[in-house]
Amino acid sequence: MSQQKNELKKILGAGFGIAVLVGGTIGVGILRAPGIIAGHIHSYWLIIFAWLFVGGYVLLAAGLFAEMATMMPKAGGPYNYVKRAFGDYAGFISGWFDYLLNSIAPAYFCIVIGEYLALLFSPLAGYETLMGLIFLVLFMLFHLSGVKSGSIAQQITSVAKVLFFVALVIACFFVDTETIAPEKAQSLVESTTILGFLTALQLIMGAYNGWWSGCFFAEEDVDPSRNIPKSLFTGVIMVIVIYILLNMAFMHVIPPAALANSPLAASDVARVVFGESGSKLVIIIAIVSILSILNAYMMIPARIMFGLSRDRFFIRQGTNINKGGTPVISLLITTAFSFVLIIVGSFQQLFALAGFMSLVVTGLSFAAHMKLRKSEPDTPRPYRAWGYPVTPVIVLLATATMFIGFAKSDQFNFLIVIGIGIISYPAFRLIRK
Which structural domain, as residue segments, surrounds residue 72? Predict the structure, then answer.
């Protein structure tokens, strides 16, 4: 079952890095979130600004992650940086937050697949949860075959996803609708509350989750010093452009007021563009698109758990690697956790919680970047983030501000995050024993 040495295979390159970032980011968020966001932000231009604001934040952050990932090309990604900067307990809590964040993702992707299938085939209505569970198990079995098959599937599905969204954008702009007049600056403030804007940012942050996906596979990259920066920046820019164009296209077809609170915004837009049959076709392609992101998130949590297990932050069996290079025990545990979440969770609750937890992980990582620049100035860094120390200060302050804002707008998930933090130290002591 395991290789003689529990080592991951170095077989991945920049193509996979871009594919896993794009495939692991673009998906259910952009398909569903625009309608919910329009319910909180009632201005076309303020919606575009919100997506650009978070996109700019992500682009700055990508440079910091590129530096740390090339400096420490290890499985598990961000928690390695926090551990090296602040010690074992900080690494432990960061790693487990990151693991939980990424293990939540397969659950809500499977939930949405079930919902979309029920829209296509009415007899399946009421069986959404069962279908989500079936897809989760099927993907687990597929990834047990090895990392190479997962890599090939990721690249194929990510290319198909980008082509689909480009085609949808073009089709939307060919629809003969009235253009949306730019609002005056005063109306931007009057029509949207600060609380609503913060809630929208939380959802957008959730839609951008996955932008650091390539860092989890640094140990499996044949040339991380070259490939990781290339894949991070290329992938992030592609995601930003696609998100902005999709929002503009959606609101070209359906103005924000009419799009507000739509649970399936992409489906509503497609119904206008293509008619009823066209809408169903788009739902089919959307399911394929979500399968791409599900494929990525079946790979990521297992890498985090592998790293945590190797550093004695979890059971040693978590480092077991099968012949195909898959952390097999970690994959099985992650699947079991996601299985439970599908049964008890809902899309919006899980999606909002993931956006909240990502701020904890990235905030600690940005702080680690600043600490390592001071404590290890002479350590070789194949890539150096530009703008130091201004860039890390900007993203760290933005992260802290959003975290405080999210805590006010989403107290339930804030309490969950606090609860995890409270039990983390006794859990750390117990596991280390």
Answer: 14-432
